[in-house]
Amino acid sequence: MVSGTAGRAPEPALAPPTREAVIDRLMPGYPPPRHWRRVPSTGQHYLDLGSGDPVLFLHGNPSWSYAWRKLVGRLSPHARCVVPDLPGFGMSRHLRPPAGCPDPYQAQLDHLDTLHRHLAQDRELPERGWTLVLHDWGGPLGIAWALRHPGVVTRLVVCNTVAFPWPAGFQLPFYLRWIRDHALVSGFVHLTNAFARTAVHAGVHHRLPAAERRAFLRPYARSGERRAVVDAIRAIPRDSTDPAWQLLEPPNPDAGLGAVPMLIGWGMRDPVFTPLVLEEWARRYPHAAIQRFPDAGHFVMEDAAGELGDHIRDFLRGTP
Fold it and tell me: What is the band of 60 on the pLDDT scale with cuts at 50, 70, 90?
């Protein structure tokens, strides 16, 4: 008698999942590896997808290029989207300032210079005619970089950030002051990843799916990968004695930017960049088009991705 399985053809082995399938499971919505690039001289990671006028997205802390995935998905059919991980964040290795450069944010500007040269020389992007999309720490960095290179940036999109001295009456939330000013607190935050874990909840008004929260936190899973997160909080400038203050009050403020077309997309439920900061943007740049999103938090690109993406698309189409 033959067993019931005798003579039956063996079942085919399951094919291993593709790299893109694994990435989509670990980082849902993030562009696949064929869009990943690195700057040869620094190893800085960035996304490059779409075609058209170049648009450079600069994230803040504790986020990384993953925060822009929804906007990039909407805008890449209309523009060349370049989305770097700032050194020390995401998939870019930690930035170590060169000798004689104690301020890490001047070194960040130098890395933006290197990225821009690489894109112009190796990726054949134009040297001028760039749009910057800025959020959180990306705001002061992007504005300072634009001032460093007059004429390169021809449009600005501003999302919940600051690029000028804090307006009268503004105060940082107490938890940021504690992390910035107390070594024991910052050490605890570094050990537990508490700031990033809190940000993925408190930074949005509409709860993120668990898989997306895990993707936000993935680059900071090990304590050795969190140094830039805490360093960025401790570098928040209070006054002119702090090195990063020059990002908020550069020697040539508004030089060449006063007439640059500007779109401001603001999450009105942001506990850090409150409506008081938005009012200062409006006062300093009265020509800016402002879109307020009453049900969006700090990560306005998460809470209002559809509306914000449409406004940015129309802004790109409607400005030379």
Answer: very high
Percentage of the residues of the chain whose pLDDT score is greater than 70? 90
**Count of C-beta atoms within a 10 Å radius of residue 21:** 11
Nearest to 48 by CA among 111, 124, 109, 112: 124
Q: Token match 């075609």: residue?
A: 51
Which amino acid appears at position 43 of this protein?
G
The Cα 196–Cα 229 span in angstroms is 8
Q: CA 121 to CA 139: how far, in whole Å?
A: 25
Q: Are strands 80-84 and 45-49 parallel, antiparallel or unpaired?
A: antiparallel
Q: Which residue reads 């360093």 in tokens? A: 231
Tokens matching residue 148: 């460093």
Give the list of residues 6+ apart from residue 5 with CB closer than 8 angstroms, or none.
none
- pLDDT tier, 102 (very low <50, low <70, confident <90, very high otherwise): low
- Average per-residue pLDDT for the chain: 91
**DSSP letter, residue 98:** P
For residue 19, give every residue at least 6 positions away whose Cβ sits within 8 Å of its Cβ, in sequence order, or none: 33
**Per-residue tokens: 189:** 């935050």
The answer to whether domain 35-170+247-318 has CATH 3.40.50.1820 is yes
